[in-house]
């Protein structure tokens, strides 16, 4: 219990939802309780808890992302017979053209971001830091908005 606040903050950073973060921490406590007899051999309980929580959060995040993707697929399928929106199509075309103008690394970062990858995952794939990823995405979004609304 003494690590609860720190663990909650860590879970919230990954999941971005207070209910999911609370559930993840609760899930961690259940798993720790189930392993209580083996806990005496752990050199750093805090590090052990953080590692377990990180894995729990990643699993939850993947489930959430999969569930959201399923919902989006159902919505897209149900709207397939609806007439296309000219503005949405124009924005999509402009985005595709805009992405081709970016340097290769920035284009790769944005494509991964658009596919739902986290800054941590993108950082691992590209070798950049999470801070760099966030700055790159922020600057590209800002530039896109400027160009899109000027046209």
Describe the protein in words:
The protein has about 150 residues and is mainly alpha-helical. It has two domains: about 5-80, Rna Polymerase Sigma Factor, Chain: A (Orthogonal Bundle), CATH 1.10.1740; about 85-150, Arc Repressor Mutant, subunit A (Orthogonal Bundle), CATH 1.10.10.10. Helix content is about 80%, strand content about 0%. The chain has helices at about 5-15, 20-35, 45-80, 85-100, 105-115, 120-125, 130-150. The chain is elongated, with a radius of gyration of 20 Å. The protein starts with a helix and ends with a helix.
Compact summary:
By secondary structure, the protein is mainly α.
| H-E order | HHHHHHH
Largest sheet: none
Cα radius of gyration in angstroms: 20 Å
**CATH third-tier fold name of the largest domain:** Rna Polymerase Sigma Factor, Chain: A
List the domain count as a whole number. Answer: 2
Mean pLDDT: 78
Question: If helices are DSSP runs of H or I spanning 4 or more residues, what is the number of helices?
Answer: 7
Helix content: over 70%
Uncertain segments of ≥5 residues (pLDDT<50)? Answer: 77-84
Shape: elongated
Determine the structural class based on helices, strands and strand pairing: mainly alpha
CATH hierarchy, class of the largest domain: Mainly Alpha
CATH architecture of the largest domain: Orthogonal Bundle
The N- and C-terminal alpha carbons lie at a distance of 56 Å
Number of strands: 0
């Amino acid at each position: 219990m003494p690590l609860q606040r720190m663990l909650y903050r860590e879970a919230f950073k990954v999941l971005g939802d207070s209910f999911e973060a609370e559930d993840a921490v609760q899930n961690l406590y259940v798993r720790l309780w189930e392993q209580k007899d083996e806990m005496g051999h752990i050199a750093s309980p805090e590090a052990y808890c953080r590692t377990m929580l990180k894995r729990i959060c990643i699993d939850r995040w993947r489930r959430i992302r999969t569930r959201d993707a399923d919902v989006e697929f159902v919505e897209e399928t149900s709207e397939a017979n609806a007439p296309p929106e000219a503005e949405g199509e124009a924005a999509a075309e402009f985005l595709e053209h805009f992405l081709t103008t970016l340097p290769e690394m920035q284009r790769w970062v944005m494509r991964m971001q658009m596919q739902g990858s986290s800054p941590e995952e993108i950082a691992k794939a590209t070798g950049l830091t999470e801070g760099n990823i966030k700055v790159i995405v922020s600057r590209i979004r800002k530039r896109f908005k400027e160009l899109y609304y000027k046209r």
